[in-house]
Amino acid sequence: MSAPFEERSGVVPCGTPWGRWYQTLEEVFIEVRVPPGTRAKDVRCSLQSRHIALAVKGQEVLQGKLFDSTITDEGTWTLEDRKLIRIILMKTNRDAGNCWTSLLENEYAADPWVQDQMQRKLTLERFQRENPGFDFSGAEISGNYTKGGPDFSSLEK
């Protein structure tokens, strides 16, 4: 079995003071650097459909209303090597036109260049799903790719 599209094509991260976040068609990934030696019992993480709250050792790290809705029951967090918290959120709206421009409604926005790269990647990921026999991981895209690019689904095959 081949690697998922995002692993072959790389990620387009948006840096933040606490780490970074990035997205695929289906998921939003959040990576938070924490002090080395952090234990799971030091972490308080609440994942709701439109809200996230993360505190480490009683200090709020991340809290607010998410840019868009997620599936609450499918959100997870893990503590890796006692120095990184990885949060995975499952998007409710999973089409290429749903490119989050920021992690929270008014915070951690991707700069215009990063936003453009994120949208390009999601559009290529959509093309990969629609054409499973082709490898788009090294492809470049130009032209109309905003909102997920052109819709070719009505064309005859």
TrEMBL record:
<keyword id="KW-0995">Kinetochore</keyword>
<dbReference type="GO" id="GO:0005813">
    <property type="term" value="C:centrosome"/>
</dbReference>
<dbReference type="InterPro" id="IPR037898">
    <property type="entry name" value="NudC_fam"/>
</dbReference>
<keyword id="KW-0963">Cytoplasm</keyword>
<comment type="subunit">
    <text>Interacts with LIS1.</text>
</comment>
<protein>
    <recommendedName>
        <fullName>NudC domain-containing protein 2</fullName>
    </recommendedName>
</protein>
<dbReference type="GO" id="GO:0006457">
    <property type="term" value="P:protein folding"/>
</dbReference>
<keyword id="KW-0007">Acetylation</keyword>
<keyword id="KW-0597">Phosphoprotein</keyword>
<feature type="region of interest" description="Disordered">
    <location>
        <begin position="138"/>
        <end position="157"/>
    </location>
</feature>
<feature type="domain" description="CS">
    <location>
        <begin position="14"/>
        <end position="104"/>
    </location>
</feature>
<keyword id="KW-0137">Centromere</keyword>
<keyword id="KW-0206">Cytoskeleton</keyword>
<dbReference type="GO" id="GO:0051082">
    <property type="term" value="F:unfolded protein binding"/>
</dbReference>
<keyword id="KW-0158">Chromosome</keyword>
<dbReference type="Pfam" id="PF04969">
    <property type="entry name" value="CS"/>
</dbReference>
<dbReference type="InterPro" id="IPR007052">
    <property type="entry name" value="CS_dom"/>
</dbReference>
<dbReference type="GO" id="GO:0000776">
    <property type="term" value="C:kinetochore"/>
</dbReference>
<dbReference type="InterPro" id="IPR008978">
    <property type="entry name" value="HSP20-like_chaperone"/>
</dbReference>
<dbReference type="GO" id="GO:0005737">
    <property type="term" value="C:cytoplasm"/>
</dbReference>
<comment type="function">
    <text>May regulate the LIS1/dynein pathway by stabilizing LIS1 with Hsp90 chaperone.</text>
</comment>
<dbReference type="GO" id="GO:0000922">
    <property type="term" value="C:spindle pole"/>
</dbReference>
<dbReference type="InterPro" id="IPR037902">
    <property type="entry name" value="p23_NUDCD2"/>
</dbReference>
